[in-house]
Design goal:
alpha/beta, Rossmann fold, 10 helices, 3-stranded parallel beta sheet, Asp_race, about 50% helix, globular
Protein backbone atom coordinates (compact mmCIF):
# COMPACT_ATOMS: atom_id res chain seq x y z
CA UNK A 1 0.00 0.00 0.00
CA UNK A 2 1.27 3.51 -0.81
CA UNK A 3 -0.35 5.29 2.11
CA UNK A 4 -3.26 6.67 0.13
CA UNK A 5 -6.53 6.30 2.04
CA UNK A 6 -9.64 4.96 0.32
CA UNK A 7 -12.40 7.55 -0.10
CA UNK A 8 -15.97 6.32 0.29
CA UNK A 9 -18.19 8.50 -1.88
CA UNK A 10 -21.96 8.52 -1.37
CA UNK A 11 -23.21 9.95 -4.63
CA UNK A 12 -25.97 9.95 -7.19
CA UNK A 13 -27.66 12.97 -5.61
CA UNK A 14 -27.49 13.83 -8.43
CA UNK A 15 -25.04 11.94 -10.62
CA UNK A 16 -24.40 15.22 -12.48
CA UNK A 17 -22.50 16.60 -9.49
CA UNK A 18 -21.12 13.21 -8.43
CA UNK A 19 -19.37 12.97 -11.80
CA UNK A 20 -17.65 16.27 -11.03
CA UNK A 21 -16.56 14.97 -7.63
CA UNK A 22 -14.98 11.94 -9.28
CA UNK A 23 -13.26 14.07 -11.92
CA UNK A 24 -12.01 16.72 -9.47
CA UNK A 25 -10.69 14.14 -7.00
CA UNK A 26 -8.82 12.18 -9.64
CA UNK A 27 -7.47 15.25 -11.44
CA UNK A 28 -6.12 16.57 -8.14
CA UNK A 29 -4.49 13.27 -7.18
CA UNK A 30 -2.87 13.11 -10.62
CA UNK A 31 -1.59 16.68 -10.30
CA UNK A 32 -0.08 15.94 -6.90
CA UNK A 33 1.27 12.44 -7.44
CA UNK A 34 2.09 12.11 -11.13
CA UNK A 35 0.48 11.55 -14.55
CA UNK A 36 -0.60 7.95 -13.98
CA UNK A 37 -1.86 8.43 -10.41
CA UNK A 38 -5.53 8.33 -9.49
CA UNK A 39 -7.60 8.22 -6.34
CA UNK A 40 -8.34 5.06 -4.43
CA UNK A 41 -12.09 5.33 -3.95
CA UNK A 42 -15.41 3.53 -3.77
CA UNK A 43 -18.75 5.05 -4.76
CA UNK A 44 -22.28 4.18 -3.76
CA UNK A 45 -24.60 5.90 -6.23
CA UNK A 46 -28.31 6.32 -5.52
CA UNK A 47 -31.17 6.55 -7.99
CA UNK A 48 -31.90 10.21 -7.36
CA UNK A 49 -35.52 9.95 -8.46
CA UNK A 50 -36.16 7.89 -5.33
CA UNK A 51 -34.23 10.28 -3.09
CA UNK A 52 -35.95 13.37 -4.51
CA UNK A 53 -39.40 11.87 -3.98
CA UNK A 54 -38.63 11.07 -0.34
CA UNK A 55 -37.19 14.55 0.23
CA UNK A 56 -40.28 16.34 -1.03
CA UNK A 57 -42.52 13.94 0.87
CA UNK A 58 -40.68 14.85 4.07
CA UNK A 59 -39.68 11.23 4.70
CA UNK A 60 -36.30 12.02 6.26
CA UNK A 61 -36.34 8.92 8.45
CA UNK A 62 -36.44 6.73 5.35
CA UNK A 63 -33.66 8.78 3.81
CA UNK A 64 -31.55 8.36 6.95
CA UNK A 65 -31.97 4.59 6.67
CA UNK A 66 -30.81 4.67 3.06
CA UNK A 67 -27.76 6.75 3.89
CA UNK A 68 -26.91 4.39 6.74
CA UNK A 69 -27.10 1.40 4.40
CA UNK A 70 -24.82 3.15 1.90
CA UNK A 71 -22.32 4.10 4.56
CA UNK A 72 -22.22 0.56 5.95
CA UNK A 73 -21.69 -0.88 2.47
CA UNK A 74 -18.74 1.44 1.86
CA UNK A 75 -17.34 0.59 5.28
CA UNK A 76 -17.54 -3.13 4.46
CA UNK A 77 -15.92 -2.41 1.11
CA UNK A 78 -12.84 -0.91 2.74
CA UNK A 79 -13.41 2.84 2.74
CA UNK A 80 -11.34 4.78 5.27
CA UNK A 81 -13.65 7.81 5.47
CA UNK A 82 -16.91 9.00 3.92
CA UNK A 83 -17.74 11.89 1.62
CA UNK A 84 -21.45 12.64 1.19
CA UNK A 85 -21.57 14.24 -2.26
CA UNK A 86 -24.49 16.59 -1.63
CA UNK A 87 -25.29 19.56 0.59
CA UNK A 88 -28.97 18.85 1.22
CA UNK A 89 -28.48 15.36 2.58
CA UNK A 90 -26.07 16.70 5.20
CA UNK A 91 -29.29 17.36 7.07
CA UNK A 92 -28.81 13.69 8.02
CA UNK A 93 -25.06 13.84 8.65
CA UNK A 94 -25.53 12.96 12.31
CA UNK A 95 -27.60 9.89 11.50
CA UNK A 96 -25.05 8.73 8.91
CA UNK A 97 -22.14 9.25 11.27
CA UNK A 98 -23.92 7.31 14.03
CA UNK A 99 -24.44 4.33 11.70
CA UNK A 100 -20.77 3.76 10.86
CA UNK A 101 -17.37 3.67 12.51
CA UNK A 102 -15.80 5.79 9.77
CA UNK A 103 -15.28 9.55 9.95
CA UNK A 104 -17.49 11.73 7.75
CA UNK A 105 -15.91 14.71 6.00
CA UNK A 106 -18.69 17.30 6.42
CA UNK A 107 -19.18 19.55 3.39
CA UNK A 108 -19.69 22.71 5.45
CA UNK A 109 -16.27 22.50 7.10
CA UNK A 110 -13.95 23.10 4.12
CA UNK A 111 -16.41 25.78 3.00
CA UNK A 112 -16.26 27.54 6.34
CA UNK A 113 -12.48 27.27 6.42
CA UNK A 114 -12.20 28.83 2.97
CA UNK A 115 -14.49 31.72 3.89
CA UNK A 116 -12.64 32.44 7.13
CA UNK A 117 -9.35 32.16 5.25
CA UNK A 118 -10.57 34.82 2.83
CA UNK A 119 -11.24 37.17 5.74
CA UNK A 120 -15.00 37.33 5.18
CA UNK A 121 -17.75 37.36 7.79
CA UNK A 122 -21.13 37.71 6.04
CA UNK A 123 -21.95 35.39 3.16
CA UNK A 124 -25.00 34.61 1.06
CA UNK A 125 -26.15 31.00 0.69
CA UNK A 126 -27.69 29.49 -2.44
CA UNK A 127 -28.98 25.92 -2.32
CA UNK A 128 -32.11 23.83 -2.22
CA UNK A 129 -34.97 25.09 -0.08
CA UNK A 130 -34.02 22.41 2.45
CA UNK A 131 -30.51 23.82 2.76
CA UNK A 132 -31.49 27.50 2.73
CA UNK A 133 -34.45 27.24 5.08
CA UNK A 134 -33.23 24.77 7.72
CA UNK A 135 -30.51 25.26 10.30
CA UNK A 136 -28.38 22.16 9.72
CA UNK A 137 -26.05 23.91 7.25
CA UNK A 138 -26.24 27.59 8.19
CA UNK A 139 -26.04 26.68 11.85
CA UNK A 140 -22.80 24.76 11.43
CA UNK A 141 -21.19 27.69 9.61
CA UNK A 142 -22.43 30.14 12.23
CA UNK A 143 -21.50 28.07 15.28
CA UNK A 144 -18.18 26.62 14.14
CA UNK A 145 -16.83 29.47 12.05
CA UNK A 146 -18.54 32.58 13.44
CA UNK A 147 -20.07 33.49 10.09
CA UNK A 148 -23.25 35.42 9.38
CA UNK A 149 -25.15 33.49 6.71
CA UNK A 150 -27.88 35.23 4.71
CA UNK A 151 -30.36 33.54 2.39
CA UNK A 152 -32.40 35.02 -0.48
CA UNK A 153 -35.97 36.21 -0.05
CA UNK A 154 -38.87 33.82 -0.44
CA UNK A 155 -39.40 34.28 -4.19
CA UNK A 156 -35.70 33.99 -4.90
CA UNK A 157 -35.41 30.85 -2.76
CA UNK A 158 -38.24 29.27 -4.75
CA UNK A 159 -36.51 30.15 -8.02
CA UNK A 160 -33.14 28.77 -6.91
CA UNK A 161 -34.76 25.54 -5.69
CA UNK A 162 -36.83 25.08 -8.86
CA UNK A 163 -33.83 25.47 -11.16
CA UNK A 164 -31.88 22.87 -9.19
CA UNK A 165 -34.60 20.21 -9.25
CA UNK A 166 -36.16 20.89 -12.64
CA UNK A 167 -33.03 21.72 -14.63
CA UNK A 168 -29.60 21.12 -13.12
CA UNK A 169 -30.16 17.59 -11.81
CA UNK A 170 -31.46 16.76 -15.30
CA UNK A 171 -28.33 18.13 -16.95
CA UNK A 172 -30.03 21.26 -18.31
CA UNK A 173 -28.02 24.49 -18.15
CA UNK A 174 -30.02 27.47 -19.40
CA UNK A 175 -28.83 31.00 -20.05
CA UNK A 176 -32.04 32.48 -18.64
CA UNK A 177 -31.53 30.57 -15.40
CA UNK A 178 -27.93 31.75 -15.19
CA UNK A 179 -29.13 35.33 -15.53
CA UNK A 180 -31.79 34.75 -12.88
CA UNK A 181 -29.13 33.40 -10.49
CA UNK A 182 -26.93 36.40 -11.21
CA UNK A 183 -29.79 38.66 -10.16
CA UNK A 184 -30.32 36.68 -6.94
CA UNK A 185 -26.61 36.97 -6.19
CA UNK A 186 -26.70 40.71 -6.85
CA UNK A 187 -29.56 41.14 -4.37
CA UNK A 188 -27.64 39.22 -1.71
CA UNK A 189 -24.62 41.46 -2.30
CA UNK A 190 -26.82 44.55 -2.06
CA UNK A 191 -27.90 43.24 1.35
CA UNK A 192 -24.29 43.04 2.52
CA UNK A 193 -23.05 39.60 1.49
CA UNK A 194 -19.27 39.66 1.11
CA UNK A 195 -19.19 36.25 -0.56
CA UNK A 196 -21.58 33.69 -2.05
CA UNK A 197 -21.76 30.00 -1.14
CA UNK A 198 -22.82 27.71 -3.98
CA UNK A 199 -24.49 25.47 -1.42
CA UNK A 200 -25.84 22.83 -3.75
CA UNK A 201 -23.40 20.60 -5.56
CA UNK A 202 -25.14 21.20 -8.91
CA UNK A 203 -25.03 25.01 -8.83
CA UNK A 204 -21.42 25.05 -10.03
CA UNK A 205 -22.75 23.70 -13.33
CA UNK A 206 -24.64 26.98 -13.83
CA UNK A 207 -22.71 29.85 -12.21
CA UNK A 208 -19.19 30.57 -11.03
CA UNK A 209 -16.89 33.43 -10.13
CA UNK A 210 -17.59 35.27 -13.39
CA UNK A 211 -21.24 35.58 -12.36
CA UNK A 212 -20.63 37.27 -9.02
CA UNK A 213 -19.12 40.62 -7.98
CA UNK A 214 -17.90 39.04 -4.72
CA UNK A 215 -15.93 35.83 -4.05
CA UNK A 216 -17.77 32.58 -4.78
CA UNK A 217 -17.28 29.46 -2.68
CA UNK A 218 -18.06 26.33 -4.70
CA UNK A 219 -18.86 23.60 -2.18
CA UNK A 220 -18.38 20.80 -4.72
CA UNK A 221 -14.80 21.77 -5.46
CA UNK A 222 -13.92 22.62 -1.86
CA UNK A 223 -15.32 19.30 -0.61
CA UNK A 224 -13.56 17.28 -3.32
CA UNK A 225 -10.22 18.96 -2.64
CA UNK A 226 -10.61 18.39 1.10
CA UNK A 227 -11.23 14.71 0.38
CA UNK A 228 -7.94 14.52 -1.53
CA UNK A 229 -6.10 16.31 1.29
CA UNK A 230 -7.41 13.73 3.74
CA UNK A 231 -6.73 10.76 1.48
CA UNK A 232 -3.12 11.80 0.87
CA UNK A 233 -2.37 13.06 4.38
Amino acid sequence: MDGQATIGLIGGMSWESSAHYYRLINETVRARRGPTASARCLMWSFDFSEIEALQHAGRWGDLADRLADAGKALERGGADFLVLCTNTMHRLAGELQAAVDLPLLHIADPTGQAIVGAGLRKVGLLGTAFTMEHAFYRGRLEERFGLEVAVPGEADRALVHRVIYEELVAGMVRDESRQAYREVIARLVEDGAEGIILGCTEIMLLVGQADSPVPVFDTTTLHALAAVDRALA
